[in-house]
Amino acid sequence: MEIWDLLHQAAPIMLRGAGYTLLFALSSMLGGLVLGFVLAVARIVPWKFVHWPAAVYVSLMRGTPLLVQIFVVYYGLPSVGIEFSPLMAGVLTLSLNAGAYLSESLRGAILGVTRGQWSASYSLGLTYPQTLRYVVVPQAVRIAVPSMSNTLISLIKDTSLVSVITVTELMLSTKEIIAVTFRPLPLYIAAAMVYWFLSICFEALQHRLEKKLERAHQT
Prior knowledge:
The chain has about 220 residues and is mainly α. It is built from eight helices and no strands. The radius of gyration is 21 Å and the shape is flat.
């Protein structure tokens, strides 16, 4: 079978898998952003009973392999009565992992806002939550966009790991085709090109968002 014929036949299956890859990446990014913001705020508040659990969680998730985390959620939790579908387990684990990394990006961005902004807000009578919401967070988001975009691009590649729990995303779709055609090299290269294309698209979106936020900041 010629390579082009092989790729033509494999394209529908691989594109369907790429759709699941996008679903995992975007869903996990959304969940990770929510968790990351909560963790970032918990890391900067002065209350130790809030700060330390958040710090331990971030250290744990960043210090252990994502593959091990997937196994714990999908294969380990059922032993204590908590069971998820492969799709839910994949999204949940990626969200929990991404939240730890995004929290560090957001925390650094929040701390990057000058103390004068905080002082000016307090002098206007704003409370701590109001200062965060209306003054600090909008500036921090602009600062954190590049690092958060890098996390999303990493998530696109990390979705390949959920193939180990039988989720038919791009990597598992490619493996299924290889099991039938016995042509691993062109198909793995094609899968790599799809991941690369998705990453390039998100890099372009990142640059556009950065420019838009920069123009909004200057007006």
